[in-house]
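Q: Give me the 3D complex with CA2.
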Amino acid sequence: MRILVLNGPNLNMLGIREPDIYGKDTYSDLVNLIEEYCKNKGIEVKCLQSNHEGDLVDYIQQAFFDKTDGIVINPGAYTHTSVALLDALKAVSIPAVEVHISKVNERESFRQISYVSYYCSKTITGKGFDGYIEAIDYLAAL
Ligand code: CA2
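A: Here is the predicted complex, encoded as structure tokens.
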């Protein structure tokens, strides 16, 4: 099984600021956690992050050509704005799970809107890094 874990803008700043919302662990801690977990499960995983919407669209499209079985996506702030990411997910038609580290539904009203949720079969919020593991397990069980 092959999984892509995609993180959007500013998630490379994890652990550097706002630890009360996003925790103390860094983006590289997240990547290590995911890679270690997938190694033990025999899952091939690629973790990518970009601050640029077009890069994220490109990575989703590439997942199709790489015959990726599942996508875990935390689009960061693009969650709340990007029809392009929604369209890219629809275009590749790969099973996808949306993850948010924080409890987006308890935050500002603009964070209650998610375009990618129109495509994703599951949304996990407020579970920190464990949300990514739950998403991988969900995709692996499909
Ligand atoms: O809770 C999440 O995972 C979010 O997707 C994170 C995004 C935010 O725009 C979404 O509404 C919810 C922002 C990630 C920013 O991460 C930072 C990390 C450290 C310092 C500042 C921002």
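A quick observation: The helical segments are 19-22, 27-41, 53-65, 83-92, 130-140.
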